Give the backbone structure.
Amino acid sequence: MKVKTILVSQPKPKVENSPYFELEERLKVKIDFIPFIHVEGVSGKEVRLQKIDLKDFSAIILTSRNAVDHFFRIADEMRYKVPDTLKYFCQSEAVAYYLQKYVVYRKRKIYVGKRTFPELIPLIKKHKNESFLLPSSDKLKPNVPDLLDKLNLKWTQSVFYKTVVSDLSAYANVTYDILVFFSPSGIKSLFENFPDFKQNKTRIAVFGNTTAKAAKEAGLDINIMAPTPETPSMTMALKKYINEVNKK
């Protein structure tokens, strides 16, 4: 079956040159963006109940832009003046760049990983004497605490925000040729919103092994997988698949 419509279970990209827009234009398909999950911040009171005092930490580990936003939100709520001496360990350049929203970049000690959390570990290892705070969501990848524990660091995780299932009831009668998922939470949201969902002729695209595992456990057949050596991004995987089925 040819592909005409795609639903990406994430917010619409804010950049004009997103590869999704190019894909839509070149392959003449319609792409909608509907977040299946969203983030809600916890209160300063809830953070205090986790026995967190921000002044106890000399370094902070930031794994996402959400972590950046909610760290500074909590700091503001707790009336904590973030010191210029605080060290920032950012998982990627995108996270480090986003940090400029809150601090003067050149005046801070900022250490940047390449892309994945394991790639940040060598930088953290060089500063083992720091006291690290890891502000995170309630859904933390298990390899993160495992890697930090192996370093014998003084570090603390605290939930600053939560991943929440979005209400998708408005889309109950809408169908798409391809559904695109990026996390197990997205799969969970699909079945929480539509417990009787049947895949039928809908193609499923997943990004990452944990998402693939969740999809299979939910009884879904995976038609498009990324990243792979041939298609390292989701848009490349979609393009390859659509080119193959639409020319038949």
